UniProtKB/TrEMBL annotation:
<dbReference type="InterPro" id="IPR004137">
    <property type="entry name" value="HCP/CODH"/>
</dbReference>
<dbReference type="InterPro" id="IPR011254">
    <property type="entry name" value="Prismane-like_sf"/>
</dbReference>
<keyword id="KW-0479">Metal-binding</keyword>
<keyword id="KW-0560">Oxidoreductase</keyword>
<protein>
    <recommendedName>
        <fullName>Carbon monoxide dehydrogenase</fullName>
        <ecNumber>1.2.7.4</ecNumber>
    </recommendedName>
</protein>
<dbReference type="Pfam" id="PF03063">
    <property type="entry name" value="Prismane"/>
</dbReference>
<feature type="binding site">
    <location>
        <position position="62"/>
    </location>
    <ligand>
        <name>[4Fe-4S] cluster 1</name>
    </ligand>
</feature>
<feature type="binding site">
    <location>
        <position position="74"/>
    </location>
    <ligand>
        <name>[4Fe-4S] cluster 2</name>
    </ligand>
</feature>
<feature type="binding site">
    <location>
        <position position="70"/>
    </location>
    <ligand>
        <name>[4Fe-4S] cluster 1</name>
    </ligand>
</feature>
<keyword id="KW-0004">4Fe-4S</keyword>
<dbReference type="GO" id="GO:0050418">
    <property type="term" value="F:hydroxylamine reductase activity"/>
</dbReference>
<dbReference type="GO" id="GO:0051539">
    <property type="term" value="F:4 iron, 4 sulfur cluster binding"/>
</dbReference>
<keyword id="KW-0408">Iron</keyword>
<dbReference type="GO" id="GO:0016151">
    <property type="term" value="F:nickel cation binding"/>
</dbReference>
<dbReference type="GO" id="GO:0006091">
    <property type="term" value="P:generation of precursor metabolites and energy"/>
</dbReference>
<feature type="binding site">
    <location>
        <position position="79"/>
    </location>
    <ligand>
        <name>[4Fe-4S] cluster 2</name>
    </ligand>
</feature>
<dbReference type="GO" id="GO:0043885">
    <property type="term" value="F:anaerobic carbon-monoxide dehydrogenase activity"/>
</dbReference>
């Protein structure tokens, strides 16, 4: 009877006329600090097309999931253990059906995020290693080994000899193809070797390696550490948050010092090591009278070929034959960063601008591979003439208007030409009025371990001597790595830019990757001229002297491995302690959203870096576990997590940490002296 009543109620409720509610839409100015983005959000709203910004208004996040305390690892749940106000009053008695505590649930969820992130970066690395193997075996003719020096530099890390001794004692160079083949095999084995540990771990400063060894977190092989996370977090396995995060650390290290580092290195070998170059950034790089091809995703394997195809005379002539003036390439997300770093192809925007590039009405093709790709691109593309092309075997979309051209390294150029031709032939099909925002900025990108050595190295002394010397004398207060995504739950680019500006204002040099790099480029922070406007006097002086921007763009998110190695070089150059955790340095992801960011954060923390995240933190419902991440991990690895959504406070937490490290090194006095020098100088000029 009770059932019947309930049913009747539902039926009645269904028949009642619903009040028409206007769909919630975003306030363009509240959604982004960037004018081009604001214009395009408004444009989309005029056209009746929803974007991520509107959807973030219409749907709020789950209040339990956001705390990290919802367990759906078995079908007795989901068990929800939100932290309520009264929970802190007495003993924490929250538990799931099986008895799992909030700490266990949050730790399991946290390390599953690490598994997702490490898998994404590392599978990307594996894809590159497979192409490298095909090249080494002579099976792929469209790619070549572009940077032999880089190959020779990394070979010893895999235990591969670069010279050979003849019987009469002569030392001869080994054949490059032979070296490549051996490196390719050893690199591919890193994903599944049965014994030992990852080769690149020994590239870390010795004391750090010893810490990992003592803590028992040296990753054995990449796949194993990720699989083990899935096993341990299965119902009824690992139920100790400390032991769970230990496995999370292993997998994260397998990402940063494994999959990501291998990806970066082999990409450099195949496509060239980046060196500083000039480009532009933001939606304003698109051109109404050109064929616009936007490349979005993460692997540079396909995009390298598309760049080559689009720059060929044959394709440029073809574009002209359909009435276009040429072909304009643009990037979104990290594939954008890859082709920016090596070819100067300008990024059209960050992660949150992907839909907006299509809404310009001038995007003739958007080519996507893997990661950070919105499924809603297909719905947006449907409203325009844009061809949305998926290219990766593991990343397809269900919508019918999406074209799938599976990319294969064995006929790479052929595939790339097919895609470029498709875009050219689509130029004449533009139907909507084109509206490209004018906004764009100039940038200098393409930094890396090698180019920092060139710009900030010493002539006679250690490699990073000039950088270290300026840190010791206090002109540069410290180093910050500011990286990561955008998140539609916070104003687009606001935290990125506020934090970076606050850091450079306080003489902290910034190394950037990922969408933070693109955000900084869009705001014009990646030019040497920026230094005089935004930097403190010490950093401004250094930038002016050596001609670099105060924010150095180091590439995509897998290129965070470049930051690890740059930090290692700083340690090696001397005078700033023996380990990464001794350096006056800090890390930040102001607007993170991806599981990859959590993996990156964990490997930075485990490498000794104080790492602050903005927006939200996925363990807030489990204070004991969170305290372990925020305070206890430092005792093991020298680095720790922190969370601060307010951008100014966020920057000052990093600066306070940098100052603490300066004091521990005994170089805080030198900094005071420099400040006095500046004051004196100002008095003189007054
Ligand atoms: Ni990184 Fe690159 Fe951007 Fe975040 Fe996505 S593009 S790999 S995950 S959103 S920085």
């Amino acid at each position: 009877m009770a059932e019947e009543t309930k049913l009747k109620k539902v039926v009645v409720a269904d028949k009642e006329p619903k009040a028409e509610k206007a769909a919630k839409v975003a306030d363009p100015v509240g959604a982004s600090i960037d004018i081009a983005t604001q214009q395009m959000i408004k444009r989309a709203q005029e056209l009746g097309i929803d974007t991520v910004f509107d959807r973030a208004e219409a749907m709020k996040p789950c209040n339990i999931g956001i705390q990290g305390t919802c367990c759906k690892n078995c079908a007795m749940g989901p068990c929800r253990l939100p932290l309520t106000k009264s929970a802190g009053d007495g003993p924490d008695e929250r538990k799931g059906l099986c008895g799992a505590t909030a700490n266990t649930i949050a730790a399991r969820n946290f390390i599953r995020m690490i598994a997702g992130g490490a898998a994404a970066h590392s599978d990307h690395g594996r894809g590159v290693a497979e192409v490298f193997m095909a090249v080494a075996q002579g099976e792929s003719h469209d790619y070549k080994i572009k940077d032999v020096n880089k190959l020779l530099a990394i070979a010893p890390h895999y235990g591969v000899e670069t010279t050979v001794k003849t019987e009469d004692g002569q030392v001869l160079d080994r054949d490059v193809n032979e070296i490549a083949l051996e490196v390719a095999q050893k690199a591919l084995d890193e994903w599944g070797k049965a014994e030992g540990e990852l080769f690149y771990l020994k590239r870390a400063p010795q004391p750090l390696y010893e810490k990992w060894k003592k803590a028992g977190v040296l990753p054995r092989n990449i796949d194993r550490e990720i699989v083990e996370i899935m096993h341990r977090t299965h119902m009824g396995v690992d139920q100790d948050y400390k032991n769970l995060i230990k496995q999370g650390t292993r997998a994260a290290l397998a990402d940063g010092w494994g999959g990501s580092m291998i990806a970066t290195d082999l990409q450099d070998v195949l496509f060239g090591t980046p060196y500083p170059l000039q480009s532009e950034a933001n939606l304003g790089i698109m051109k109404e009278d050109h064929v616009n091809i936007i490349i979005h995703g993460h692997e540079p394997i396909l995009s390298e070929m598309i760049v080559a195809a689009a720059q060929s005379q044959e394709m440029i002539d073809y574009a002209k034959s359909v009435g276009a003036k040429g072909i304009q390439l643009g990037g979104i997300c990290c594939t954008g960063n890859e082709i920016l770093q090596r070819h100067g192809v300008p990024p059209a925007g960050t992660y949150l601008q992907q839909e907006l590039a299509i809404i310009t009405g001038a995007c003739d093709a958007m080519v996507v591979d893997i990661q950070c790709v919105f499924q809603n691109l297909a719905n947006v593309a449907k409203c325009f003439h844009t061809k949305l092309i998926t290219t990766h075997r593991i990343a397809r979309m269900e919508q019918e208007n999406v074209i799938h051209i599976e990319f294969d390294e064995h006929h790479a150029m052929e595939d790339a030409q097919r895609i470029v031709k498709m875009a050219i032939e689509n130029f004449k099909n533009r139907k909507a009025e084109v509206m490209i925002p004018r906004t764009k900025a100039t940038q200098i990108a393409g930094f890396g371990v090698e180019s920092i050595r060139y710009h900030l190295g010493g002539t006679f002394r250690g490699d990073y001597y000039t950088l270290n010397d300026n840190i010791i004398n206090g002109r540069i207060r410290g180093i910050a790595g500011v990286v990561g995504c955008n998140n539609a739950r916070t104003r687009h680019n606001e935290a990125h830019i506020t934090i970076v500006k606050e850091l450079i204002k306080n003489d902290v040099i910034v190394l950037t990757t990922g969408c933070n790099g693109i955000a900084c480029a869009m705001e014009g922070l990646l030019t040497p001229e920026t230094a005089a406007v935004f930097c403190g006097p010490g950093l401004a002086e250094v930038c002016e002297t050596v001609g670099i921007p105060p924010v150095l763009h180091m590439g995509s998110c897998v290129d965070n491995s470049r930051i690890l190695l740059a930090a290692t070089e700083v340690v090696k150059a001397g005078g700033l302690g023996n380990d990464i955790c001794d350096l006056p340095a800090a890390g930040s992801a102001p607007e993170w959203m991806s599981e990859k960011a959590i993996s990156i954060g964990q490997y930075f923390v485990a490498s000794g870096v104080y790492t602050v995240f903005g927006v939200t933190f996925p363990t807030s419902g489990a204070p004991v576990f969170q305290n372990y991440l925020f305070n206890e991990l430092e005792k093991i690895y020298g680095g720790k997590w922190d969370f601060e959504p307010d951008p100014i406070k966020h920057a000052h937490k990093m600066i306070a940490h940098i100052d603490k490290k300066r004091k521990a090194l005994g170089i805080d006095k030198a900094r005071e002296r420099v400040l006095m020098d500046m004051a004196d100088r100002m008095k003189l000029s007054a």
